[in-house]
């Protein structure tokens, strides 16, 4: 008899499946016949690890899945050993090359379509995070490589002085914006 611990990961895996994240990731990043585990399955494993309350660094990633029903969570024939740091690193590189913002946009749009989320009315809110210490300004010429367009280069978060809602003009800060739809429901599974 073999006992495996599923915890809340079954619910998370079910929602990932409902969104169609594994298939979408394969469509956007491509698939290779020699890889035993697809980029979408790797991404699903990273989400499960991140929401597992005890995330592990990449070199210990497979240990997180020991004692868990990996085939049930990720697919038939997949074991914890398939989730090694090399495979995870390659998928992270693919996501970076594709563009994380564009990837997230595609995932969000698929979730909106699949769950029928109304986007006719949205609410935007922002918050600022005050920071201690020195944060020198980013030199754009160092970030943008040779022959690279500035618009396509990764953008660093700009840490700067600005209006402080916390009444702390002495601290540098950065802003975080969040847009929510007026729908407000948790997606229903039919």
Compute the gyration radius: what is it?
20 Å
Q: Globular, elongated, flat, extended or rod-shaped: what is the shape?
A: globular
Order of helices and strands: HHHHHHHEHE
Number of helices: 8
Question: What is the terminal-to-terminal distance?
Answer: 34 Å
Summarize model confidence as the mean pLDDT: 81
Q: Please give the largest β-sheet.
A: 2 strands, antiparallel
Describe it for me?
The protein contains 8 helices and 2 strands. It is an alpha+beta fold. Strands 1-2 form a two-stranded antiparallel ribbon. Helix 2 packs across helix 3 (39-50). The radius of gyration is 20 Å and the shape is globular. The chain starts with 8 loop residues before the first helix and ends in a 9-residue tail after the last strand.
Features:
alpha+beta; 8 helices; globular; 190 residues
